[in-house]
Amino acid sequence: MARILVLVLSGPESEGRVAAALGFAARAHDLGAEVRVVFFADGVRVALEGERYPELARGLAELARRGLTPLVCRRNLEALGREPVLSGFAVRYIGADLVQAAEDGFTVFSF
User: CB count, 10 Å around CB of 28?
Assistant: First the structure.
């Protein structure tokens, strides 16, 4: 089974790129891959603002429908002055998660 980490670095103004990431994650999951989705750097703004963008809102809903809970970098949220609580997302410092994914053989696709 493939192990895929989708790393979203783009903000919501790059709607097409982020939508591609979310669609790819959903499709990979449907094909049987173990999938993790991580919002990092400017990508954390998708977790904050994505519901305002119809295509991103659909993509996030598709992840939720599949039981995939995206991970959002807490440090990036703090840098934006935001509270580290987001409904539908796991929020934590992600350095250890990224290292563990590499150790576990995940292939990283960044968007």
Answer: 18
Give the chain's domain count. Answer: 1
Side by side, the strands of the sheet bearing 71-73 are 90-92, 71-73, 34-39, 3-8, 107-110
**What whole-number distance in Å separates Cα of residue 100 and Cα of residue 93?**
13
pLDDT, tens only, 58-109? 999 999 999 999 999 999 999 999 988 889 999 999 999 999 999 999 999 9
Q: Whole-model pTM?
A: 0.95
- 3-class state of residue 51 by DSSP: helix
Check if the beta carbon of residue 12 is closer than 8 Å to that of residue 56: yes
Task: Give the pLDDT band (50/70/90) at residue 35.
Answer: very high
**CATH code for the domain in which residue 38 is found:** 3.40.1260.10
Q: Which range marks the domain in which residue 25 is found?
A: 3-110
